[in-house]
Amino acid sequence: MTTAPSASRASADRLGRVLNLVPYLLARPGIAIVEAAADLGVSEKQLREDLELLWVCGLPGYGPGDLIDMAFDGDNVTITYDAGIGKPLRLTPDEALALVVALRMLAETPGMANRDAIERALAKIESAAGADADAPVAVRMTGNSKKVDRVRGAVERGRALRITYYTASRDQTTERVVDPIRVVNVGGWAYLEAWCRRAEATRLFRVDRIDDWTELDEPAAPPAEARPHDLSAGVFRPGAELPLITLRVGRSERWITEYYPCENVERGTSGEDWLVTMRVTDLDWARRLILGLGPEVTVVSPPELITGIREQAAAALAAYSVPVD
Description:
325 residues, alpha+beta, 5-stranded antiparallel beta sheet, WCX_dom, PafC_HTH, Proteasome accessory factor C
């Protein structure tokens, strides 16, 4: 059972473990899993899950000869094919430049943790890339555009805004008047944080989803109770008031446990599937998410979500049965 307060942090931690796992196992063929878990400071259960992830890691092409391969002898494991991870990395100029750009963008992201590690890695790659690292490149955060600059200007001028906003979780467009507080970048997206007069609460609006806006003559006047959100753990912070759903997830769809905050992840009775419990903004959003996933995801609860998915799937099938003139 695991708890995931931050999907991005959990993904980063697991990436570090898996990258360290391959050279460790290469140096210790036939090591007992319980011994490896103790050396690496993880539980035996976690190590087995990381080994399962390694089965689908490797080189582009992702065929049998491209993926990392292992052999198990009882509770002992040996890496039989490392997919080239043991070889020194040689970057092409384009690859080096792409890494430099990405690391520079990370270093400039507000609130980024481990900035020292990012700057050390950037210095090493810039040194190795030489003159290629100085190539003229325009770097823009996702969602950064003239729209962001104009919204930021409205914040600086202290003007209220009338915005037309698309809410992805409800697949709905609404119009509302907001009193801007600040513009922030979180997870590569630009957000307007403002007091929403319609909701009578502080809200975050992703700038790329603001379809239209008008700067009003009246000044922005957030009330005294308006407080900026704590964004250290990301934008979505699920609380007990949100709907709780449980999914049965097969191997090919386990990525959702890394991408979305989960309250609980445990191995199913078959050993191949996982039971994933997570909170969602609303059941309509969950329905759209699940309908877009593959056949290896099954809804366990709540019953109303199961019914909603069944009805929409039946309606979609019925639409295909109608002849087209």
